[in-house]
Amino acid sequence: MLKGTEADSVKHQDGTQSLLEGFREHGRGFEDFVYAYPVLSRRARGLSLGLNLSPHKACNFDCLYCQVDRSVPGKTKTVSMELLETELSALLELTLSGEIFKVGKFTSAPEGLRRLNDIALSGDGEPTSEPVFEEVCQLLARFKEEGKIPKDTKLVVITNATRFHLEKVERGLQMLDPHEGEVWAKLDAGTEEYYQKVDLSKVPFERVIENLVLIASRRPVKVQTLFFEMEGEGPDARELDAYCSILEKMLVAGGKILEVQLHTVARDPKNHVALPLVSEELEGYAEMLRKRTGLEVSVYPGLRG
């Protein structure tokens, strides 16, 4: 019998109550798997199979809202492509046969969410930083060509936008482009000061901005943003103005933004300085973004509903 953490699972049998409780769990353990894990995802509106390319837990960001406990050693320092392929194949078989929905908390998933939406490169660090990134992209493209992954299943790279300027990263993304590839790029701030306060990175914010402009000019992107309460308040008007200016810069340069995914804290972070915004605040931010930029903004509430 399967055990472990079936992350982001839905707890309500009839599907009529809020799904939020199920989305609060976001562990990356499944059986004794090291790299592959299933997630019932809010953004995917269905099942997402994650590939953790950073089981060592190293990352070039240290976001205040991150739920990864980096004080606990990771499972391994390297990625075995052979094991990763084996785990992904096993999860695909479970998912496409429907057997996954007979396991643990996945049994309570509403019928409307019992679908494979995507395979996501994400995990406990920045996936594009990993030496195997290009090789994993090649593997996913091959699985698509061989019919092991359905044609309409998206191949998503969830990234902090720090490495789009590197040729090897672009080569990997190009492999995914013909196969429903998508880039979900992080932007949590408008200014260097706020960026360093919330994302805590040695990568200059200007590099992130330049990369966002670059990637949006090469392929359509989704911008993922997490706003939260810190020291009693969320981002102020000055910060929001600067944030919107970055989105506008991407558009003026000819880039295409499919949507902005606006989040707040939905799972307990390791740093409890980061608190969730209430839904009304988050919706207020979203409406301001829509009016200012004309972009589609999807809202994902947090722990405070």
Can you tag this structure with a few keywords?
single chain; 305 residues; alpha/beta; Transcription Regulator spoIIAA; 31% helix; 16% strand; disordered N terminus
Summarize the structure.
The protein is of the alpha/beta class and 305 residues long.
How does this model look, in words?
The chain is of the alpha/beta class and 305 residues long. Helices cover 31% and strands 16% of the residues. It folds into 2 domains: 1-186, no CATH class; 187-305, Transcription Regulator spoIIAA (2-Layer Sandwich). Strands 1-2-3-4-5-6-7-8 form an 8-stranded mixed β-sheet, with helices on one face. Helix 3 links the parallel strand 3 (116-122) and strand 4. It is globular and about 50 Å long. Residues 1-29 have low confidence and may be disordered.
Shape: globular
Can you count the beta strands?
A: 8
Question: What's the gyration radius in Å?
Answer: 19 Å
Total of helices: 8
| Poorly predicted spans | 1-29
Number of domains: 2
Q: In percent, how helical is the residue content?
A: 25-40%
What string gives the helices and strands in order? Answer: HEEHEHEHEHHEHEHE
Helix-strand layout with pairing:
Blueprint: H1 20-23, E1 36-41, E2 46-52, H2 81-97, E3 116-122, H3 133-145, E4 154-159, H4 167-176, E5 181-186, H5 192-198, H6 205-218, E6 221-226, H7 237-252, E7 257-263, H8 279-293, E8 297-300
Parallel strand pairs: 2-3, 3-4, 4-5, 5-6, 6-7, 7-8
Antiparallel strand pairs: 1-2
